[in-house]
């Protein structure tokens, strides 16, 4: 009985995710599938369109055995840090094999990881974005570009696997749709990318996505308001208006004078400006939209550098849901892991370990109207 | 040519205010009437129902010659501090006589002021509200109660007059309506209190207030959204959710452990709670609703103690509007006053002198959708 790990956002959970799980089950019918899932704020610096409990239920229904939440400190991060955090958690969860989608499943990700292991995080001296500098460094080491989002993430997982000595067997799965951002369908007519689905949802073409998502996702989409940056923009704007430069500077990911840009560019915008208007105004050659969107999450949730460091020093396993098979596996994890396994918010942990995630949940709840952590226990599906 | 001062909020400007101006003109047809008016946040800890420019226009149209803005640091304050700030400003504006409404215009406010001059601000040791303790101290000194809102304010003006050696001649005008909070009409059928008018407006009985306000106010009410705490509650809630105890503690008017109450009581509220629900939850014997509402403004606008002290040390005259007669008077004030006369926001003053008022305006603009300070110059009416 092997333990398979998947790193996911499920934003929202769609047929491509279902297909991935089917592939796992086909290869390992009795595997325990553990998913490390982003919570309510995601890798690319945006709120999840559906809350973490809704997405957990979807994943469990589709056959996942355990869902643990990636702490916000790990998941609202560039690919390499995101991967390090996720692999760290899956390692503690006893994962043996890591499945992930890739545009080029034929790549030898282990070899690529070994070759690029000397690439380290600080590209701040270049007059280009972090992502561009990173890709250039990869190109220099490998002799060819890795420039599609899933391949890049796969490489980041592989690098984290080596760096953390997690010893995962890597299983890249060929992505069966054209690209991350297209609605072009290949082979299977009922698969589209998450971003394509979100695009349709934003355009309120809800019925159009029915083909591409499982029934449970479609029901949630029909019933719940879909959350986006638009819901948080008034709060972010207010936060920037009332924050001193000094305060913005103390937040995670600010630096290099970005605090001035953040405030100044807002001041020039009209009162009816949107989140995207602000992002465009702050954008420069140096910063990608994604970097700035992550910064926006840090401002919105008031993430300090100290808090991120604290989670890095003292990571934890936050359980969101499990199946019967998952429960058996969790009993083992409880004994083997040196990280605390957290099943609910308590008076103590909301002021210490979970402080940041708890606050993020409270902010998210301002848009959904549904509390995210208080009075929640992990979902169980048998 | 005398200079008459009035301290006002004009929330909104109504026939009672008009009547007060008529009384002044009747007694002093050629007087220059200078009004020190609260800006967008008011004495009782609430946003103004119409913005400061709209209210300034109403006042000028009704015959006021100069409107200067009471800095937020002076006006979102208990009566005695509010009065001190306002009298300080009117003194610099060359005011000679102070007109104010009173439930008992027959009182000798000068004498009352002299008798109660030894009453000073700190009542924090009593297990009762500041206001109650203050009234009790007044009762002890005078031998009778002063417990109606306008008499209390009048006494506060009189005390400030003595303390600041402003030498204003005090002119109390008998209020011609029953009480501050009633819609009961006496003598003149077209006068109602501001709070009664706001109550009707909140109940969306807009047409019902037509009788009680000048045409210009009625037009503004019909055209502009009426602002209340409801508009800022999502922002306040968000601010409390994301602020650390330490940060709340650094704000003006917090202390005595109030920061814990502010956060804890919010946590217990449902997601659909209103501003009033929160206020009720935080309320205790020790704190009046008004005190807590002022605290809410401090949290919303992020008013620090240091900022309030700064304004107290370096006051200024912020001009909102003037008539031709007002302009002549302003030329004198410019020469005689040692306070800066500010006519617009500049790169410099928005980071120094006007920092707090500018921020308050930006927060207010999040509800109105209309910038409050940038690109505004004083209104002129001839």
Automatic annotation (TrEMBL), chains A, B:
User: Which residues are recorded as binding ATP?
Assistant: 7-20, 101, 150, 175-176
One GO biological process term is: tRNA modification
* Molecular function as annotated in GO: ATP binding; ligase activity, forming carbon-nitrogen bonds; tRNA binding
The main location class comes to cytoplasm
Organism superkingdom: Bacteria
Q: Which family does it belong to?
A: Belongs to the TmcAL family.
Q: Cellular component per GO?
A: cytoplasm
Q: Which InterPro entries is this protein grouped with? A: Cyt_trans-like (IPR004821), Rossmann-like_a/b/a_fold (IPR014729), tRNA(Met)_cyd_acetate_ligase (IPR008513)
The protein in question is named tRNA(Met) cytidine acetate ligase
Q: What does this protein do?
A: Catalyzes the formation of N(4)-acetylcytidine (ac(4)C) at the wobble position of elongator tRNA(Met), using acetate and ATP as substrates. First activates an acetate ion to form acetyladenylate (Ac-AMP) and then transfers the acetyl group to tRNA to form ac(4)C34.
Pfam families, sorted:
HIGH_NTase1 (PF05636)
Instruction: Tell me which EC number(s) this protein carries.
Output: 6.3.4.-
Its recorded reaction(s) are: cytidine(34) in elongator tRNA(Met) + acetate + ATP = N(4)-acetylcytidine(34) in elongator tRNA(Met) + AMP + diphosphate
Q: Where in the cell is it found?
A: Cytoplasm
What broad class of enzyme is this?
Answer: ligase
Alphabetically sorted, this entry's keywords are: ATP-binding, Cytoplasm, Ligase, Nucleotide-binding, RNA-binding, tRNA processing, tRNA-binding
